[in-house]
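Session log. Operator J.P. requested a structure for one protein chain; no other inputs attached. Running the standard single-chain path with C-alpha cell output.
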Amino acid sequence: MSSAGHSKCLDDATDFSVWLLQSISKYSRFYRFSLGQRLALEAIELAVEIQQAAFGIERQASLERANNHVTRIRLLLRMSCALQLMSLRQLGFATEKLDEIGRQVGAWKRHAANEAAR
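Structure written below.
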C-alpha cells in the first residue's frame, strides 16, 4: 500500500472518529458515560493503531488491533441504535465508513504480509 493509501486510511479513521465523538456528545447522560465512553475510546484507539502502522511500529500487530477495533465499534454502534441513541441513518453512515476503513486495513495487512514474505 502506498504512503498515499496510508494517509487516506488514517484520514478516514480520524474523520470517522471526530464524527463519532460529535455524535456521542448527544447521547443521554446515562449512556454517554457508559456506552459512549467505550465507543469514544475504541474510535480513538482505531486511529492511533492506524497511525502506528503508518509509522511502521509493529505494523502487522497494529493493523490486527485496528481490525479488532473496527469489529468492536460495529457492535457498540448496533447497541447504540437498539437503545435509540442514534438513528438508522446514522448507523448506516457509520457502517459504511467502517466498512471502507476495514477494507483499507485489510488491503494494507495483505500488502504488509506480502512485503514480509519477500
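Operator note: The domain at 3-117 is CATH 1.20.1440.60 (de novo design (two linked rop proteins)).
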